[in-house]
Amino acid sequence: MRLLAIAAGAAVLLAACATYAPDAEESARPAVLVTRDGEAWSAEFTFDRDSPVWGFRRSALRRSDRQPWRLARWTVETPGVVLERQGEIDILRTVNGGTVPRTVRVTMRPAADNLEADYPNLVFTDGSVALFTDHFDVFPLSSADAALNTTDGGSGLEGEASRVTWRDRAGPVLFRGKRRKDPTDIAAASYVLFGGIPLIETPRLATVMDPRLPAWIGAEINDFAPKVVDYYAARLGAGPRDRPTIMVSWNGPAKGRRSMGGSVLDGLIVMAFEGDGVVESSPELRDQARWFIGHEGAHFWLGQVVRYETRRDAWITEGGADLMAIRALQALDPAYEARQELQREVDDCVTLADKPVSTAHERGELRAYYACGAVFAMVAEGFQKQRTGGDWFDVLRPLIDANRADEVLTREEWLAGLSALAGDASVRRDVEQLLDQGASDPVAVLERLLKRSGVPFQRSNGKLTLK
């Protein structure tokens, strides 16, 4: 997931699948019916057991104000039941502390909120709306107080993912690449598109693009995305899918804004663009858009073929994808100048690494995962270059191949790979200091890392400037 300016994040899988039919075991889980009836949206939860509290597995905050998005967009219609925030998660509970009714109805007002480390709804200018499936997953809790000890939206806790049915009174919805009437799925980790916006299929891409998206953006996506994905496959081996789907929304030419945001789920990249700063193309903006496409495409490998173990390790995939995009763009466009983007990574890491990088999500400083993760990747690349003349992809390839089976690239595996390249335990210690403690003088720590790895730079007036 990549953030440029004020960004949004989302991704979709659109691929054919068989008609879903739940068996008896799958029925023993919460069920949700999501309905659009004209301008009215609702979600009816049918719980499979009694519980005084139900928590939502995904309970992200808005980037704009760090407030829970769900509380601003959902209204509980069932008497005696309230939706509120407890700790890090949103919950449903009764006013009197009793058992939540087996059926709870909620009305919704979908909007394109920018979310921290989660997939938002997408709203298109023709009235179409794409909802992220997993926002409706819930799990039981013994009390509201128990929610205070729950982190990451309840991921991994007791309770099954919801069985969700999607219904549009106007006609079939687009789900997994086909128009379907009332599709049902469990833990889909995808999007469902309500509305008539078309899916355009080509031999290398399938796209869903907002009809008012600036034409140059669509042209860059159609031209550059296949090239960069092919380059990654050549350097890193097979990705999760041969033909990605890209879904792109346009949030309008807001004055004074230049926003590109997106992320990736299984086989699909979702992007959102906004602002008068992206309406007309320029060489600088074209490079930025290509780099953005490259970052999101990188997540098919760093994010899907292998993923991080816990949210604290997001620097592995986000920073790694940043450097992947930069090196791919250099390879595909020899005129591209990477130094400015690399310098921004160093500068931002210096600013943010005074606190532990691994806990950046707790402070809403997600940029630390990108910037410092990219600097750590540059350091590993520097040692690779010293040893073999290779680059960042030569660092990544063995790490990815070694973990294709379990699909997880852990912090320990990443750092062990760095140590093997460096042959110096102090390199790992410096990275771990920034991850776990931060540094009172980040410049000094980063200077040591860059110097030992052979990354060319100079220090002047307390600033590290890449050469």
Q: Which runs of at least 5 residues are low in confidence (pLDDT < 50)?
A: 2-25, 153-158
Helix-strand category: alpha+beta
Biggest β-sheet description: 6 strands, mixed
What's the β-strand tally? 23
Looking at CATH, the homologous superfamily of the domain at 301-467 is: Neutral Protease Domain 2
**C-alpha-based Rg, rounded:** 23 Å
State mean pLDDT (0 to 100 scale).
90
Topology:
Blueprint: E1 2-4, H1 24-27, E2 31-37, E3 40-46, E4 53-56, H2 69-73, E5 74-76, E6 81-86, E7 89-94, E8 103-108, E9 122-123, E10 129-132, E11 138-141, E12 163-168, E13 173-175, E14 178-180, E15 184-186, E16 191-194, E17 200-201, E18 206-209, H3 215-236, E19 245-250, E20 259-265, E21 268-274, H4 283-298, H5 314-332, H6 339-352, H7 360-363, H8 367-388, H9 392-402, H10 411-422, H11 425-436, H12 442-453, E22 457-460, E23 463-466
Parallel strand pairs: 2-12, 18-19, 19-21
Antiparallel strand pairs: 1-20, 2-3, 3-8, 4-7, 4-11, 5-8, 6-7, 9-10, 10-16, 12-15, 13-14, 17-18, 20-21, 22-23
In short:
This protein has 467 residues and is of the alpha+beta class. 33% of the residues lie in helices and 22% in strands. Strands 1-20-21-19-18-17 form a 6-stranded mixed beta sheet, covered by helices on one side. A 6-stranded mixed beta sheet has the order 5-8-3-2-12-15.
Describe the structure.
By secondary structure, the chain is an alpha+beta fold. Among the domains are: 25-116 and 131-176, no CATH class; 301-467, Neutral Protease Domain 2 (Neutral Protease, domain 2), CATH 1.10.390.10. It has 12 helices and 23 strands. The chain has helices at 24-27, 69-73, 215-236, 283-298, 314-332, 339-352, 360-363, 367-388, 392-402, 411-422, 425-436, 442-453; strands at residues 2-4, 31-37, 40-46, 53-56, 74-76, 81-86, 89-94, 103-108, 122-123, 129-132, 138-141, 163-168, 173-175, 178-180, 184-186, 191-194, 200-201, 206-209, 245-250, 259-265, 268-274, 457-460, 463-466. A 6-stranded mixed β-sheet has the order 1-20-21-19-18-17, with helices on one face. A 6-stranded mixed β-sheet has the order 5-8-3-2-12-15. A hairpin with a 2-residue loop joins strand 22 (457-460) and strand 23. Helix 6 packs across helix 8 (367-388) and helix 11 runs antiparallel to helix 12. The radius of gyration is 23 Å and the shape is globular. Mean pLDDT is 90; it is low at 2-25 and 153-158.
